[in-house]
Amino acid sequence: MALIVVLAVFLSWRLVPAASADEMCLRIALPEATRGGFGLEIYRDVMREVGVCVEPVRMPNARAVAAMQHGDIDGVFAVLDEFEDLVGVPMVRGNVLVGNPQGLLVVRDGTINELSDLTDQEVGIWLGASWSEALLGEYKHVVRCPGGPQMMQNMLARGRIDAMLINGFSLEVLGGVPDGFVSIPVMNLPVYSWLHADHASNLTQFDKGTELFRNKIVEWREKAL
């Protein structure tokens, strides 16, 4: 009898990892702007609450496009509608508006009043942020920063760039407008979450998790203000 009990426990222990290994987890890219306020584990937890297994990973915008093209990720959190056109693979957009931050030109106080006033100022943009590229058009003094908002802020402080284009949420995460600078609104940036079309069947639950995570972001921002 004792031998039977031991065998039963052993077999049950062996079966649990096998079941977990068979679980389908979606690899979701999160923008670097979420760094600092909350960890990837929070995103993983809220998705688990609604029945979706995810493996979140932070990556720059440009890398997320390439990763989606090569099948290295299954979805993204919080990107513009143009994401599908950039990746060129079938995608489904979530129905939850993650946010609608302003696109801002941060520049030294008293030098520029609007985007069209730029002449020879070195303007930092987040590498892969196509909205910034579109706004600046043929402007020649563009510095593309692979390190995102943090890198642009450091370059601004060291005088390596004169201005930066940044979304309002990222600017809040950095602590707001640096002393001696002002922010000038240039456009609104509605963002949504996206899944590869192969995972469209998960969209309803994915939307529920996106909404929960968005609400946690809002709560964190309100406490930080």
Tally of extended strands? 10
Continuous helix count: 8
User: What number is the mean pLDDT?
Assistant: 86
- Give a quick account of the main beta sheet: strands, pairing sense, barrel closure: 5 strands, mixed
> What is the straight-line distance between the termini?
64 Å
What is Rg?
Answer: 21 Å
How much of the sequence is in beta strands? 15-25%
Helical content (DSSP H or I, runs of 4+)? 25-40%
The secondary-structure element order is: HEHEHEHEEEHEHEHEEH
Structural class: alpha/beta
Order of strands across the widest beta sheet? 2-1-3-10-4
Which shape, going by the Cα principal axes? globular
Poorly predicted parts: 1-21
Describe this structure in words.
The protein is 40% helix and 23% strand. By secondary structure, the protein is an alpha/beta fold. A five-stranded mixed beta sheet has the order 2-1-3-10-4, with helices on both faces. A five-stranded mixed beta sheet has the order 7-6-8-5-9. β1, α2 (40-49) and β2 form a beta-alpha-beta unit.
In summary, what is this structure?
By secondary structure, the protein is of the alpha/beta class.
Layout of strands and helices, then pairs:
Layout: H1 2-21, E1 26-30, H2 40-49, E2 54-58, H3 61-69, E3 75-79, H4 83-87, E4 91-93, E5 102-108, E6 123-126, H5 130-136, E7 142-145, H6 148-157, E8 163-167, H7 168-173, E9 181-188, E10 192-196, H8 203-224
Parallel strand pairs: 1-2, 1-3, 6-7, 6-8
Antiparallel strand pairs: 3-10, 4-10, 5-8, 5-9
Helix pairs in contact: 2-8
